[in-house]
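We recall that each integer encodes one residue's backbone shape. We quote one record:
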Amino acid sequence: MYLKATPSDRKENLVAELTHKARRELHKAARRFLEMSSKLLLQSIDERLSHLDADPHDVALWVLLKRTQSANQAVRLQAVQELADNHHWQDYQYQTAAQVLDERTAVSLARTPQVDLRFFLPPPALPDLDDGFSAEDGLRQLLASLPQSEVDRCVQYFTSLALRESTESLAAQRGGLWCFGGNGLPYAQSLTSVPSEKVESFCLQALVQHSKVQSHCDNIVASGGLQLLQRVYHLRRDSQKIQRNIVRIIGNLALNDSVHQAIVQAGWLSVLAEMMQSPHVIQASHAARALTNLDRETVTEKYEDGVYILHPQTRGNQQIKADVLFIHGILGAAFKTWRQKDRNTGEEEKDEDDYTECWPKSWLAADCPNLRVLSVEYDSHLSDWMAKCPVENQRKSLAYRSQELLKKLKMAGVGERPVVWVAHSMGGLLVKKMLLDASEDPDMSGLLKNTKGILFYSVPHHGTFMAEYSVNVRYLLFPSIEVRELCKDSPALRNLNENFLNMAKEKEIKVLSFAETLPTTIGPMIKILVVPAQSAHLGIGELIEVDVDHLNICKPEKKNSFLCWRR
């Protein structure tokens, strides 16, 4: 019961006034009790109560909560929107709503733009850890409980190593273990500064791999993984990388409808809703993927690990008319590859607010709200382990990656509407291979049929002179594709290009290509034109040469640059 003290100048008997107020408050409390016991007004409230003195906002709140349970989806969606749009609720009304919202409505609110976070219950309080038992120990224990089947053999190796070694011995190691990944830069470093955080980060990377296996997800939930991840998430508030990996795990778990209720009950909706409002594109995008996978009210697609929604990340009324897919190159990433061109120190201080970490999300989505913009990240981290992992592992070829991504894109509904591809470097070869594979798969025929155009940024259609340089340089830029396939005029690239050209001409796919003209600095002593113009020219479509290097060809300096916008 919520009582509000209000001063009164009426000269009534004090006892009578208190009795009058108490009766009013008891009436309100009784009405709320009846409403809650009738399961959010699924059954009518007695009309004798409905017209008596009650806060109009209380009545409006319960009416909307009742509508969220309607059998009519349009009524439900409208009720959720009105709940979110009404900013006149009091704290106690938010608290009441948070207590009674069902899973479907709570997920709907979490995916509403700029929703008030008071709609969501905070995560349940976690029990105190036993003396001498840390979150790091919990992660080790969770890993030990998971099967070692159906995961990459290097994941098995490093997981076993993490479980076997103590924190002290890990801190003494240098190299192997901590080259787990990082966009091609090995994390071979001492763990003496913050060893627990390093071990946690490593264990989370292993858990990401386990969470991709459906049969392992139930084990993670049953072993208290959702609560443990909450503990680590709040413990490492200052580590965006750790928090991203945790939400990445939640997004993978959410691919399984059977664990949705457990995720909500563990308090993850409040965490995801808050992260969705982060000013950092990467954080918000990880949260958007997890929430979208939880939303079975308006979403039929599922976004597997590595497929990120840049737009729309929340629910809206815009009808999506086409998909634009961004595919990075080897050692690139779903976000960093597509950032705005890096600025000098003076420019950063002057225009920091105008800089975007991901121009497809900030610029393309704003100008073309009817597009669904996806950025795809494929696993280029496993290749970082190859020099250290003693277990033999198949190096992932173009053909392997193509089949892997086609399955993910089909789950995301890519191919059901017009598609435009945007690819950088080796990502362009992957796009060509995927479309050729789709042409031979009846289940993927829609993808090829609906592909309308491709934009290539410095794609080595005819190979690269990189293969003529030292092994170290080749490994830095192209670690997981066989070097012989990258050699200038290699048979593999020639066949790929010829077959794609024939298909593109037949299907009348529009092509626009950009080529770098400036050498790329690699290390302290090497400068090289990674993809010359003659290799960047597919053989059809227009080729535009630009005075930038290989890394910056896909990073426009400003919004009106022709590198990202051409009418």
